[in-house]
Amino acid sequence: MAVVPYEVYRAVVFVHVFAALLFMLAHGASAATMFRMMKERNATKLSAMLELSESTAKWMGAAAAVMLFSGIAVGPLSPFESWRYAWYYVSIVLLVVLSILMSLLGRLYFHKVRKVVGLPYDEMGKKGRQPALDPAGEEEIAKIVATGRPTETALLGYAVVGILLYLMMFKPGAPIL
């Protein structure tokens, strides 16, 4: 493997950490929305919360992509030869699995609520954004809103981020390659 200047490695690490911080900042709107929605049943207020959360989605997605690709790039650039260690591959897999789980727990839930409060929504198995329907009654809204699992979702995210941080900082294990 070719040796790159240490400054290049540090620059990619900087981009990776900065993207992770931007992702967390953008993701905060969605996390806060999910917790607050559990106490709300008014369609107008829920709509405003969902629109605020969605307004950060592009930033969150862009930051996630930069975080993933810069994290992958760090391995071969690392003076520690990170690409030779299992923790490097485990980190990538954990990030991808966490992204999938968070989509299932968060995004699908938000779109169920969007549907019942009368906002355009996405639905599995259907292509593109579905047009808004008339808002459901308060009882139906309450039923769908109550299906959210903000605490479990947040704890899953915190646990995996903690594991990722441990793996990146302490780089445990012996080389596998």
Structural class: mainly alpha
Summed over residues and divided by their number, the pLDDT gives a mean of: 95
Helix content: over 70%
How would you describe the shape?
elongated
Q: How many discrete structural domains?
A: 1
* Ends distance: 12 Å
Largest sheet: none
Low-confidence stretches: none
- Determine the number of helices (DSSP H or I, runs of at least 4 residues): 6
> What is the radius of gyration?
20 Å
Strand content: under 5%
Oligomer: single chain
Annotation, overall tally of beta strands: 0
Write the element-wise H/E pattern from the N-terminal end onward. HHHHHH
Brief digest:
The chain has helices at residues 6-37, 43-55, 57-77, 86-117, 138-145, 150-170. It has 177 residues and is an all-alpha fold.
List the helices and strands and how they pair.
Layout: H1 6-37, H2 43-55, H3 57-77, H4 86-117, H5 138-145, H6 150-170
Helix pairs in contact: 1-2, 1-3, 2-4, 4-5, 4-6
Structure notes:
With 177 residues, this protein is mainly alpha-helical. The protein has one domain (6-170). Helices cover 72% and strands 0% of the residues. It is elongated and about 60 Å long.
Q: Which terms would index this structure?
A:
single chain; 177 residues; mainly alpha; 6 helices; 0% strand; elongated
